[in-house]
């Protein structure tokens, strides 16, 4: 099938569809919520910051969209049942592999913060 108009982000080697756009949107929500929680924690001298509802909401709003985004990425793979190989076998010359590694570090910090 040939198209009369150019389709952005679609080449024979690269296909970014709406799944990737939703994933990036969810990751933006997550990072914004976590940044707001950190800014609130640093700007207010709280006796017990872990019990503050604004900080707790920011951390939860940071982790839920991230988990949804990870699930979307797993199902976007050509063979989703082999996603665990990507999680433990890093290729340092691959942007996707580095993104997965940074994503895992980000989720680790979120889980430790909750």
List keywords for this structure.
114 residues, mainly alpha, elongated, transmembrane, transmembrane helix
Please describe what this structure looks like:
There is one protein chain. It contains 4 helices and no strands. By secondary structure, the chain is mostly helical. It has one domain (18-113). The mean pLDDT is 82.
Strand content: under 5%
Instruction: Name the average pLDDT.
Output: 82
Bulk shape? elongated
Low-confidence stretches: none
List the secondary-structure elements in sequence, H or E. Answer: HHHH
Number of strands: 0
Determine the fraction of residues in helical runs and give it as a percent range. Answer: 55-70%
The DSSP helix count reads: 4
Distance between the termini: 49 Å
Q: What is the count of structural domains?
A: 1
Evaluate the radius of gyration. Answer: 18 Å
Alpha-beta content class: mainly alpha
- Main sheet overview: none
Subcellular location: Cell membrane
Main location: membrane
Pfam family, one: NrfD
Protein name: Cytochrome c nitrite reductase, NrfD subunit
